[in-house]
Amino acid sequence: xxxxxxxxxxxxxxxxxxxxxxxxxxxxxxxxxxxxxxxxxxxxxxxxxxxxxxxxxxxxxxxxxxxxxxxxxxxxxxxxxxxxxxxxxxxxxxxxxxxxxxx
Length: 103
Description:
By secondary structure, this protein is α+β, with helices and mostly antiparallel strands. The protein has 3 helices and 3 strands; from the N terminus they run H-H-E-H-E-E.
């Protein structure tokens, strides 16, 4: 059986040098590599332990299918957590999806 790759933590309380406090950035909130499968996206959504406003999901453009089926599956998991989409930021090759508490 092949050795498993070490997993990065999904949430840090600070993560900043010298114990400074500031609004966390993507790298401190969750995995920064864009997800390329719905399975990986669902894993990140379900595993995140924090406020939805602290969670950002980087989604690779390959998941943005013309019918929106992949994002529908991901959004279903987001809604099940009591979150809702709060927009996205377009990056080169992927989008950073943001979330908030369900209104």
